[in-house]
Specification:
The structure holds 2 protein chains of 2 kinds. By secondary structure, chain A is mainly alpha-helical. Chain A has one domain: Amino acid/polyamine transporter I (Up-down Bundle). Helices cover about 70% and strands about 0% of the residues of chain A. Chain A has 20 helices and 2 strands. In chain A, helix 9 crosses helix 13. By secondary structure, chain B is mainly α. Chain B is extended, with a radius of gyration of 22 Å. Classes of the chains: A mainly alpha, B mainly alpha.
């Protein structure tokens, strides 16, 4: 691979001025060729998947799917199997670009078409600046302890910002914290399911995952069709969380990410950190068979991440919650009616009440306890991810931003979203103004369809041919795009509902 | 008890400590759940201890078996098999103890075999959470104590050997694959 023959449609600006070997990738600066590091053994426990798990094992697994199981029975879970498997493939394809270049998928989008990247920048700001994502966790904590959620929320927001500012290396700190909480979540899920359920519940849960083609009565209605579609979309990471995973993958030093320095907290950032952050990523020599062998090793490593760690942990947690839901429905048949008739906004306390009335207060308490833990995980990962993503886009695409440096940009976005969050938590609508709620909900699902299209474009146009995705991966991602966008528009046009929550 | 025996026991305890803590966390969760449910501090304590103690012993036992080389470090299948027995046993102890506390006689909420089978089916999930946490907590702990604890030094070495072996295995596979490719290319030419 060299300057002369390494084009993807855009010629070198001035090939005579450089002897460095580069890969021409779309409309931005070319990617210099560097060595790909050796891949670690594919079987591993530690790694960036904790971020995706922290973000992904959220409301879908702990609330939306148990509710669907209570309403429609365990056979509805085959949709969940499809949703999570689709997300595992998305994760693999997101990692392809990030591992090959050390760049985020946002920069990949900018290489294809810059406005595409700015769309994600604006969408992220609109969707994630509202602290509503933490209201469920803090609200559940309020139900548990009686402490008003505004107080918990404000303290949590300040703690998050202070900790991330003081951390020596933010990624290492977060990986450790999230690793512990996810370990607790998995052990806790197993203990909970053991204390609450029985063999019949577990059998029904597992059987339901393979009831392919089951469409329950009442699903194709304005009340439930958007909820089912939203639950499939939110099985695993939703919104832009998969895109942020590319930033964590790079930060973990995976593949070509090893050439990008780690981001320190603002308190530990030095001038050298500002200078060290390169303006673009790197590429390895895809015509060198040794490098390609290493690449295959990295692909195996991330495949283990996607299908064992991500898919496996998500399944384990959701099975435990489904067992709880089945027990609730079995012990108290009125739960189903309550949820069918109930207001969707009041569904979280209704679920807790349902669990409590079905299995004693223990079930309701357990449910709220887990929602709190999930909320804590999601809040930590989300604030870091949002700030990292926005800082990455500004750093690489706005003139003068490189002088400010990544640590300061990250801190600016972090403190900005925290201060805004504190104001909104105490004096404003946590999910955003009522008038634009539907737009935000629409954007969240739309972003998922948009990132599937972006993935197809970036991986098939920007990457060198030997490391582009195969036909099967492309077809699955295309189906994902069709599903997310198609179902969203179908829901809006036929039922007039954009909120999939 | 001689000084040698007591120091050996102390060393054993030190080695088993992180694994035991992870196991005991399950008991703490059971206790907190019971307490939060308003079922009384007494039952909460019974549930915490009756699940926590066996789980802590099994958790520490897992680390010990790894140190003895009976279980392979960092591998899921042996951990899953281990908890397939250990988790149902711990749960039976917990349920029976709770029944003694509440009714004065031991008992289970279900038929013994159905109860054991159900908990055994959940055991791989627990094993996953356990090994996930074990791989995070144990190696740094071993590095801290290995200078004065020979058992810990052995296990620390096992972790290092495991990492080296996994790396070598990978290198060997890569080399074999490269050789096969070379052969195929030569045959093609």
């Amino acid at each position: 691979m060299d300057v002369e023959n390494s084009t993807s449609g855009v010629p070198d600006k001035d090939p005579s001025t450089t002897t460095e070997r580069v890969w021409q990738a779309g409309g931005l600066d070319p990617l210099p060729i560097r060595k790909l590091p050796e891949a670690p053994p594919s079987i591993h426990i530690l790694g960036p998947t904790v971020f995706l798990l922290a973000l992904g094992v959220g409301m879908g697994e702990t609330f939306m799917w148990p509710r669907l199981v209570v309403v429609f029975g365990p056979d509805i879970r085959w949709f969940f199997l499809i949703g999570v498997t689709l997300q595992a493939v998305v994760m693999l394809e997101m990692s392809r670009y990030a591992m090959a270049t050390g760049e985020s998928i946002f920069t990949g989008a900018a290489r294809v078409f810059k406005p595409l990247m700015w769309f994600f920048f604006v969408a992220a700001a609109l969707i994630y600046i509202w602290p509503g994502h933490m209201s469920a966790g803090a609200g559940a904590f309020e139900n548990l302890t009686g402490i008003p959620w505004q107080i918990t929320g404000t303290i949590a927001l300040i703690c998050v910002a202070v900790v991330f500012t003081l951390a020596r290396v933010i990624y290492d700190l977060l990986e450790n914290v999230l690793g512990v909480t996810i370990g607790l979540l998995v052990i806790g899920s197993a203990v909970t399911a053991a204390m609450v359920g029985d063999l019949d519940d577990l059998g029904a849960t597992l059987q339901g995952m393979f009831a392919f083609g089951f469409i329950p009565d009442g699903m194709m209605t304005a009340a439930w069709f958007p909820v089912v579609v939203g639950s499939i979309a939110f099985a695993g990471p939703s919104g832009m969380q998969q895109m942020w995973y590319t930033l964590h993958l790079r930060e973990s030093g995976a593949a070509m990410g090893s050439h990008i320095p780690k981001l320190p907290g603002l308190a530990h950032a030095k001038e050298s950190d500002v200078v060290a952050m390169p303006a673009r990523g790197f590429m390895f020599d895809t015509e060198d068979s040794t490098e390609m062998q290493k690449w295959k090793g990295w692909r195996k490593w991330v495949t283990f991440d996607a299908f064992v760690l991500f898919w496996g942990v998500t399944m384990l947690v959701t099975i435990a919650f489904t067992v709880m839901a089945l027990k609730a429905a079995e012990l108290n048949p009125t739960v189903q009616e309550t949820l069918l008739e109930g207001d969707r906004d009041a569904a979280l306390p209704a679920m807790a009440d349902a669990f409590a009335s079905a299995g004693g207060e223990a079930l309701g308490w357990l449910f709220l306890g887990f929602i709190s833990l999930v909320g804590l995980n999601a809040t930590l990962a989300l604030f870091d991810s949002f700030s990292r993503g926005q800082a990455d886009m500004v750093f690489n695409n706005i003139k003068g931003a490189k002088k400010i440096g990544m640590p300061r940009l990250y801190a600016a976005f972090l403190w900005g979203v925290v201060i805004f969050g504190i104001i909104i938590v105490n004096w404003g609508p946590a999910d955003g103004p009522t008038a634009v709620l539907d737009i935000l909900a629409f954007l969240s699902t739309f972003a998922m369809g948009a990132y599937c299209v972006t993935l197809l474009l970036v991986n098939n146009r920007i990457l060198p041919k030997p490391i582009r995705p195969g036909i099967l991966s492309n077809v699955i991602i295309a189906i994902g795009a069709f599903f997310y966008l198609g179902m969203l528009f179908y829901s809006v046009i036929v039922y007039g509902v954009a909120d999939m929550g | 008890m001689s000084t040698v025996t007591s120091s050996r026991l102390a060393g054993l305890g030190e080695l088993m400590f992180p694994g035991a803590c992870i196991g005991a966390a399950a008991g703490v969760m059971a206790g907190l759940m019971t307490l939060g449910a308003g079922l009384g501090a007494g039952l909460a304590a019974v549930n915490a201890l009756a699940l926590g103690i066996p789980m802590a012993l099994f958790g520490g036992g897992y680390t010990l078996l790894c140190a003895r080389g009976i279980l392979l470090v960092g591998v899921f299948a042996p951990a899953a098999l281990y908890w397939l027995i250990a988790f149902p046993v711990s749960r039976i102890v917990q349920e029976a103890s709770a029944a003694v506390y509440l009714t004065g006689a031991p008992g289970l909420s279900d038929d013994l075999w159905a109860f054991a089978a159900y908990n055994a089916l959940l055991a791989p999930g627990l094993a996953f959470g356990f090994i996930w946490s074990h791989e995070r907590f144990v190696p740094p702990w071993l590095m801290r104590i290995r200078d004065h604890n020979p058992l810990a030094a052995g296990l620390a070495q096992a972790y290092l050997t495991y990492a080296a072996r996994a790396y070598e295995q990978k290198q060997r596979k890569d080399a074999q694959r490269a050789a096969r490719k070379k052969q195929r290319l030569a045959a093609g030419a």
